[in-house]
Amino acid sequence: MPHLAVSDVFAKYGKLEVLHGISFDVERGEVVSLVGPSGSGKSTVLRTLVGLTPVTGGHVDVDGTSIDYHSARAIKAARDRMAIVFQQFNLFQNMTVLRNVTLAPTKIKGRPKAEVEAEAIELLSLVGLADKRDAYPDELSGGQQQRVAIARALALKPEILLLDEVTSALDPELVNEVLDTVRRLAGEGMTMLLVSHEMSFVREVSNKVIFMDKGRVVESGPPGQIFDAPTSDRARDFFGKILRG
Amino acid sequence: MNYNFQFNVVWRNFDALLEGAWLTFQLGVFAFTAGLFVGLICAALKTYGPWPVRLLVNVYVVFITNTPALIQIYFLYFGLPDLGIRWSNEACVLIGLTLNAGAYLTMILRAGFLSVRTAEMEAGETLGMSLIQRIRYIVVPHIAKSIYPALANFFIVILVMGTSVGALIGVDELTGQAINLSSVNYRWLEYFTVTAGLYVVLTFVASLGLALVGRWAFRVRARIF
Prior knowledge:
The complex is a heterodimer of chains A (245) and B (225).
Chain A: E1 4-13, E2 16-26, E3 31-35, H1 42-49, E4 55-62, E5 65-66, H2 72-81, E6 82-85, H3 97-108, H4 113-126, H5 142-154, E7 160-164, H6 172-187, E8 191-195, H7 199-205, E9 208-213, E10 216-221, H8 223-228, H9 233-244
Parallel strand pairs in A: 3-8, 3-9, 6-7, 7-8
Antiparallel strand pairs in A: 1-2, 1-4, 4-5, 9-10
Helix pairs in contact in A: 3-4, 3-5, 4-5, 5-6
Chain B: H1 8-12, H2 14-48, H3 51-65, H4 69-79, H5 89-114, H6 118-126, H7 131-146, H8 148-164, H9 174-185, H10 188-218
């Protein structure tokens, strides 16, 4: 049974339909990447999974249990299992790094503060920022902020991590520090679904690559196959442009 | 111009003026704090509520901000007894000022609600926070920091301009006390000179206190002068 099964999902922003029946599976411990041109709906897929963009059709199963996106409680339960990291980090600007990480586990989940803080410091060490625990986000570089955002997402112990273009807003030299963190998580067997434009990284880390265009899955398969021998014209055209350049 | 200043009378009754200043301070702090709660709730309803609620908040804000505070307090003090509702003059001033401050603070806080980054609210949502939790943990700290100077300014407005209206319905705050005392011996000029000085001291102390609170709690570097 796949860890995450997305079946024929439709989604709308207001009146504009942006996903026209998306289907794919993510097995436990797999890293699956969504690639494709801007506006193809990659980020929307992640947003619909965590209930930020309403699902208008199809269904999503986690471990074989369907999520009812019309029920606030079910969405909340889904968010316990799937955490998202955003392109722009979206850290809480008025809180220290440590509080950014501990806020949800202590205040929302009601877990004991001491225990959560110990875990948070461990997570911050994992992303290499234990010494920044008392800094505010505006005192950190983009790469550091993004790593804090990853630690914050992990603090809720999600089963599936969704990464939405986590390196797109970073200076080129800061990209690697974030990718190293993602690599390490992949090595630890975290199930991940990522949207990325870092094609060499996608090729290296993914078990499966899904090529999307105009709100549909065009083709999917192992990275070697998708990058080197795409079968659809659209994918061939896309990779031809970006991999050559 | 051969007016003979006689401040001795004032100094003899200085205690009474200080009592007035203390009452002014209490009225100001209470009305502002209560108004802050009213404003916070109304701003939240105006930002996230369904349209009938938003309309209701708009009516409240428009009605209060477009009428003088004096009329509002007169309405409570002289108007409500006709309906069988009798409040003491202090209660009328407090409730009137709270409603008045609440409306202005709704507008001030609303700017704070609108300036919260959507991104932070979405992050909070995906971390499992309810709307109330997001307001408490994301919006309020943001407001406290970003519009703290505006809030501090408004506190001074309430403290000085708001509370003095009380004098007109017999509340012996600073202005009321100055009127009472000077109408005994007609030393208006002296009494009101000292009273003005006391208001300046009061606002200075309040500003200093607010600046220190802001610096300590919200990393805000507020100007005192």
